[in-house]
Design brief:
The protein is an alpha/beta fold. The chain has eight helices and nine strands. It folds into two domains: about 1-155, Alpha/beta knot; about 170-225, Trp Operon Repressor, Chain A, CATH 1.10.1270.20. It has helices at about 10-15, 20-30, 65-80, 95-100, 120-125, 140-155, 165, 200-220; strands spanning about 1-10, 30-40, 50-55, 60-65, 85-95, 105-110, 130, 185, 190. The chain is elongated and about 70 Å long.
Length: about 220
Amino acid sequence: MIRIDIITVLPELLESPLSHSIVQRAKDKGLANIVIHNLRDYGKGKYRQTDDYSFGGDAGMVIMIEPVYKIISKLKNERQYDEVIYMSPDGTLLDQSISNSLSLKSNLIILCGHYKGIDHRIREHLITKEISVGDYVLSGGEIPAAILCDSIIRLIPGAISDETSALSDSFQDNLLAPPVYTRPASFNGWEVPKVLLSGNPKLIREWQESQSFERTKKLRPNLLK
């Protein structure tokens, strides 16, 4: 089983995406445990302050080091963690190889930034891996954290009823997945390729491999490098 602890100032943003479909089924089966921690519970003073103005006078509020240090220290005292991950637009771009690697871990912490970001000392001394979901900026790290969790958990054996399905996904072999079709075989004059109706596994596999290569060459040629 994998355990993922997510630290956020807006836990409600994570409730829906992590409570349905494959992720929820994996939780129900005991394959994954996702624990969401409200950073405000470790905030400063009467108002549970978690952010403050940045030194230097730049605009925007910054997540303070003290509440983050408290929650990460508490979690580390309870168990050993493989990675402490910060979701950041300037982190390593998430790809399938990263998801594959993290799916083999036992305990992960994911820190969601917000506002203008987090005190850089957190990144220097507490974070072990920084991950980005793209070259753009979002309001916070909650949606990227949900994306990362989904990409990891669906790879855990048993999370998907047909475990071979995940192995044929796009990017598993640096190729895009081939086209897929279902019934009816003919609709509005649009036909399913005859090879898929042939019942010949060898021909079907050859067609799929060819389609994967051609689609990757056309849509994502950078992957072939």
